[in-house]
């Protein structure tokens, strides 16, 4: 009997205890972007320290100017990996669209099987705990892990990770290892596990356009005074051309053409564009003309408006002509697109589009370049085979439309490659109301990590 | 000695008591558009009933499906006028821009003299009370009014007056009179009183565009899924052409060319476009090319966006791709523009502009045609001369950019002409933070009404 089998059995037998532990963590409303939830972020960090300690892992909460980090070490032998996850979650508005309290997690029966419902179920508390529980099972069965594992948990991932790079620099020796493991991505489909080897970068911008000095009455000034909502709308409407391409000058510098090999690999995945869209009530791809969905999501940059706000937005009507109009805009980046150059070009484009009497203020919300993993490290193929043993279909190397800046930071700050394995599904509704994580993702995720730890020990 | 002089003296001697009464009314947060303030609207109606009773006027609070009306009668002799004002006020957001509590009114010294600060100071509680106080002074001095006065106060003016027309129809005999007097407009300038003889109409529309069925993560769907904020922005950007004209099909049907006489009359007012704009931090007219400010405000129709809201708008950043995006849009109408036809044309235009996978829901927020007063009634010239006696400059017949549907309703529902006299100033910041009413407007407003009552009795 291998070392692995009793670990897998232990995971199977203790699934409900593991789920209850995840629920404990999910009950803490650790929304990092909203200062009102600061104490809850701190509480989530404390919970993780205590949970690691209960497994015999030496862990500490480490202060930052923002929310704390949690770092733990097992001081084992063999290959040294650092596992990264984040304990903070997205805001929950609009709250009225949730069918249950986002911070009262529960198991729900659905047509597709049991799911864990609640904010953070998939992003990232459930995923983070798949790894922690795999380690707990190894230690419970064998008294130790098959390799040397360090833990590194962040509480600011959903708010731009302002403390991350300084913390990595200050603790470079402690956080460096042979390989970083990250669990914050998805399966290719419910039967096909994935290792994400290219991630888009992210640039966030908030702009506020001011016209009149004060809010005006549209009866007294309407028609004569400039309206900043109209100015902002015109700017947003101008950000894409008729082909769906982004119009910011120089935007496509550094966007690579896809290699025929990669194109073939992705074609072989037989991604179902129609089903992908249908799941969210859509029927047509709305991006750059002539691209497939996978290209749009993994290989092409975007410009999206994530929020817009101005004037009176409550119930009823108010004939105000507002002084200010704001929007939050983000760019997903690929290849070697330079976030700093794009930020400058975007700001200049907005400035150039302003009519008389308008001014604009910008606020940057973090920026990260796209990341391309090197899969030359044999650990990648070992992990791919280990995952293939657990799931119905073999694992695939895939791209990822989301931005996981930490993967790039491991490389640039710690000179450590990162391997991204995750068990999320497209319909998890992360960042949305009614977020869920399939119980199967949680269960087989733990089993997958147990297998990967075993594979990396060989 | 005339009957008038002791009334004017009584007003002068009792200014501070009158101001304190206005403060009492202003302390009641009677925001009609927000259901949370329903009880306060009721309290404001009660206050008015009690205040009228204290002057010996028989007044009653009258229930409607919305906020109550207040109706009072003096049963005097001579010409019968019905005075209309509204006791409800606009919402106060954004509250953080107020320098003091909007519902804690106070006298403030400013460079331009003393002002009454607070929500409703000018719109319309302060204006309403100029008339009530003028009546109180007449009664105090002479035991009665020089003409027969009825009072009619509404509590839904700032939320589209849904109960007004039904109430007028049900109480037609009681509310009809020889002439309606309305105090909800402004001076032409601080030295020149005005009687408003043409008012723009108003059409309010709220639209909500839905794209994906749920909010999406911009990393997982950005680039491929339609973004309703982009769709809405494009529609808003298309509502005006490069000349500043509204593009809704058929919009300009019924917009009259100005007569040379009216053009001359308005030119003679020597309106200072630059000063008008400069007061709110602007330097250029932003409306239809080739029109003067007075034309834009009094004689031309508009389309304005009064509010827009979608996605994440709190602190920080959230990479959401929202399911829905909403805007509140209003049209100011002139001449014989048909609000119903324009509503239909606007909705059709939006429908036609929707890309695949998007749907739209509309909500109408009231509509009123423009109103043109007949100044043939000698009461208009009598009132104009009475106002000219009170102020440095003679009174003028002017247009009004705002929409005061009640003026049209008096004509269509009660067959009563309306005379609009008000003492607001352009910088009163009505509908904005830090609303004020000059103490001079309040004081000379009361004196003006005392003079008008006297003039109408001759």
Task: Explain how this protein is built.
Two copies of one chain form a homodimer. Chain A is of the alpha+beta class. The first copy, chain A, folds into two domains: 4-199 and 370-456, Aminopeptidase, CATH 3.40.630.10; 202-255 and 301-368, Alpha-Beta Plaits (2-Layer Sandwich). Chain A has 15 helices and 18 strands. In chain A, strands 1, 2, 3, 6, 7, 8, 15, 16 and 17 form a nine-stranded mixed sheet that branches. In chain A, strands 11-13-9-14 form a four-stranded antiparallel sheet, with helices on one face. In chain A, a hairpin with a 6-residue loop joins strand 1 (58-62) and strand 2 (69-73). At the A-B interface, strand 9, strand 10, helix 7, helix 8 and helix 11 of A face strand 9, strand 10, helix 7, helix 8 and helix 11 of B. Strand 11 (302-311) of chain A pairs antiparallel with strand 11 (302-311) of chain B. Chains A, B: Residues 199-357 form the Peptidase M20 dimerisation domain. Chains A, B: This is Succinyl-diaminopimelate desuccinylase. Chains A, B: It comes from Nereida ignava.
Radius of gyration of chain A: 23 Å
Helix percent of chain A reads 25-40%
What overall geometry of chain A do the principal axes of the alpha carbons give? globular
User: What is the subunit organization of this protein?
Assistant: homodimer
Looking at the overall shape, the CATH architecture of the largest domain in chain A is 3-Layer(aba) Sandwich
The total of beta strands of chain A comes to 18
Largest interface: A-B, 101 and 100 residues
What's the mean pLDDT score of chain A? 94
GO molecular function (chains A, B): metal ion binding; peptidase activity; succinyl-diaminopimelate desuccinylase activity
InterPro entries (chains A, B): Cyt/Met_Dipeptidase, Peptidase_M20, Peptidase_M20_dimer
Pfam families (chains A, B): M20_dimer (PF07687), Peptidase_M20 (PF01546)
EC number (chains A, B): 3.5.1.18
């Amino acid at each position: 009997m291998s070392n692995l089998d009793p670990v897998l059995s232990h995971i199977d037998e203790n699934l409900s205890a593991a789920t209850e532990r995840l629920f404990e963590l999910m009950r803490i409303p650790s929304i990092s972007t909203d200062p009102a939830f600061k104490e809850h972020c701190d509480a989530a960090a404390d919970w993780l320290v205590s949970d690691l300690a209960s497994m015999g892992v030496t862990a500490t909460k480490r202060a930052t100017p923002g929310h704390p980090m949690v770092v733990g070490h097992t001081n084992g032998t063999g290959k040294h990996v650092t596992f990264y996850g984040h304990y903070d979650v997205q805001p929950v508005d609009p709250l009225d669209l949730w069918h249950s309290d986002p911070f009262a997690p529960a198991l729900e029966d659905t047509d597709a099987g049991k799911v864990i419902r609640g904010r953070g179920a998939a992003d990232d508390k459930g995923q983070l705990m798949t790894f922690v529980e795999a380690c707990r099972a190894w230690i419970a069965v064998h008294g130790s892990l098959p390799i040397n594992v360090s833990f590194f948990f962040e509480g600011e991932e959903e708010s731009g990770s302002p403390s991350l790079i300084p913390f990595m620099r200050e603790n470079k020796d402690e956080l460096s290892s042979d390989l970083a493991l990250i669990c914050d991505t998805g399966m290719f489909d419910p039967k096909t596990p994935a290792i994400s080897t290219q991630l888009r970068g992210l640039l966030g911008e908030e702009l506020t356009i001011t016209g009149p000095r004060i809010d005006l009455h549209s009866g007294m000034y309407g028609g004569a005074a400039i309206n900043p909502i109209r100015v902002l709308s015109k700017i947003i409407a101008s950000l894409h051309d008729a082909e769906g391409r982004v119009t910011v000058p120089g935007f496509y510098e550094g966007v690579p053409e896809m290699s025929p090999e990669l194109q073939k690999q992705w074609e072989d995945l037989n991604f179902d564009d129609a089903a992908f869209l249908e799941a969210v009530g859509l029927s047509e791809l709305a991006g750059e003309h002539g691209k497939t969905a996978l290209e749009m999501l993994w290989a092409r940059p975007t410009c999206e408006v994530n929020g817009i706000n101005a004037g009176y937005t409550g119930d009823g009507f108010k004939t105000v002509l507002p002084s200010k109009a704001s929007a939050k805009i983000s760019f997903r980046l690929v290849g070697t697109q330079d976030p700093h150059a794009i930020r400058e070009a975007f700001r200049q484009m907005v400035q150039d589009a302003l009519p008389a009497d308008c001014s604009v203020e910008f606020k940057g919300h973090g920026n990260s370049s796209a990341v391309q993993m090197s899969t030359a490290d044999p650990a990648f193929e070992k992990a791919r085979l280990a995952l293939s043993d657990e799931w119905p279909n073999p694992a695939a190397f895939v791209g990822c439309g989301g931005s996981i800046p930490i993967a790039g930071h491991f490389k640039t700050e710690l000179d450590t490659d990162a391997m991204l394995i995750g068990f999320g599904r497209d319909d998890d509704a992360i960042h949305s109301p009614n977020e869920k994580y399939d119980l199967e993702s949680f269960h087989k995720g733990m089993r997958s990590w147990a297998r990967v730890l075993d594979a990396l020990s060989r």
